[in-house]
Amino acid sequence: MADPYNNRIGYQQRSPSFPQTIPGFNPGTTQTIHGFNPGIPQTGFVFNSPQAWQWQNQWQHRQQQHYSGVSSPSSSYVNNANATAAQSRQRGSGDVIARADIIARAEHAATAAYAGFLSAEESVTVWKLTQSVLSTLKADSLESLGLRVQDVPCLYKIILLEGKLNAFVHCYVAVRRIATLHDLSTEICRHEGVEDFERLGLGPLIRHPLIVHYFAPPADIVTAFKITTEQIISYLSDFLDDWQEKDIRVEEFLSFVAKKESVSFPAQLCIRIQSLREVAGGS
């Protein structure tokens, strides 16, 4: 007797409500359904059989019970992504507020130190200001605070001005065989458009580290001695008239000038001489 269920075409026509194509199954062949719970046979069966339909319905029912109330993976992913983004925004906002607070505290410390140096008639440098800021904030470096010099307005202003001054001083003394601090101060003020060097806000010029390095002024003087390069050359001409030795010693010449200017010792003149031989040879 022929199996009525082998008439697959007729069977599909009698079951129009069931999908015609089901992934994972090949109608008319023996298939093994995986993932069934215990109690449902795991062996192969003919798909077009009443028993297969019963097992399929039971499996779908249990799957629906298992996943009921569980959000889809895509929904969970979106929720997690939104939560992560919100946390990132909160952290970012907190970081901005904290950094702004550190900058404000550093600026306040730098401004206070700046005013203190000026009132004490000391030179102002970005290094000294930075050390004062770090001492106030109890930090080892600006980097440890997450800052750069450019982030603190007071420090940034001073580093720009100090950079221009340092470059000017280096160039001035490099191209002159004889230089006086008085002439240098005059040239700096003319270049910066001020009447007095201290209007630049860097403290007394005579206390600036580069001035100390190049001119070695005594600690007890507060202003540069007023003497020009032209006066020095004039004194050199007089000095050579009476100098009988071949070599010209700078120390002897400076003593001669100090005597002419009625100062106690040559260092008060604030004169820098690199080579008297070249100057004397050209005079």
Compile the SSE list and pairings.
Elements (H helix, E strand, L loop, with lengths): L7 H7 L15 E2 L13 E2 L3 H18 L5 H47 L6 H12 L15 H22 L3 E3 H12 L16 H7 L13 H14 L7 H12 L9 E3 L2 H7 L1
Antiparallel strand pairs: 1-2, 3-4
Helix pairs in contact: 3-4, 8-9
Shape: elongated
Largest beta sheet, briefly?
Answer: 2 strands, antiparallel
Helix content: 55-70%
Radius of gyration, in Å, reads 46 Å
Q: How are the strands ordered across the major sheet?
A: 1-2
How big a fraction of the residues is strand? under 5%
Cα(first) to Cα(last) distance is 138 Å
Unreliably modeled segments: 1-47
Count of separate DSSP helical elements: 10
Q: Report the average pLDDT across residues.
A: 78
Counted beta strands: 4
Briefly note the structural class of the backbone. Answer: mainly alpha
